[in-house]
Amino acid sequence: MAATTTRAKPEAPKIVWNEKDRKFETEDKEAYLQYQLRNGGKVMDIIHTYVPSSKRGLGLAGHLCVAAFSHAQSNSLSVIPTCSYVSDTFLPRNSSWDSVVYKEELKSSI
C-alpha cells in the first residue's frame, strides 16, 4: 500500500481589528485595510487597502476585506467600497457580501 502525502493548507493569516486607528491589519501590521465611519457610525467607508509587494499574491487583501465585511455585518453596519480593490476586485469575486454594501435609501416623493 502506497503512502499518501497530503499537503496542509496554509493557515489563514490572523487579522486584527485596530479600532483606535480604524484599521484591520495583519499581526505584523504590514498589510492593512483602512476605513472611516460615516452616518453617525452606521456606515463603514473602506478607503484604502495596502499589502506590501513582498506579500502580494497571498490573498491578504481578500482576508482583510472578509474581516472588515464580517465586522460590518455583525455590527449592523453598511459598507461603502471607496477603495478600488474592494469595489473592482473583491466584491465582483465575492457577491455574497453585496447585501452589506451601502445603498442610499430611496426617499418617497409623496
From TrEMBL:
Q: Enumerate the InterPro entries for this protein.
A: Acyl_CoA_acyltransferase, Gcn5-rel_NAT, GNAT_YJDJ
Q: Which organism is it from?
A: Coffea arabica
Q: What is the official name of this protein in its record?
A: Acetyltransferase At1g77540
Q: Which Pfam families does the entry link to?
A: Acetyltransf_CG (PF14542)
**Annotated ranges, domain N-acetyltransferase:** 7-102
Extract the Gene3D superfamilies matched here: 3.40.630.30
Q: Which domain of life is it from?
A: Eukaryota
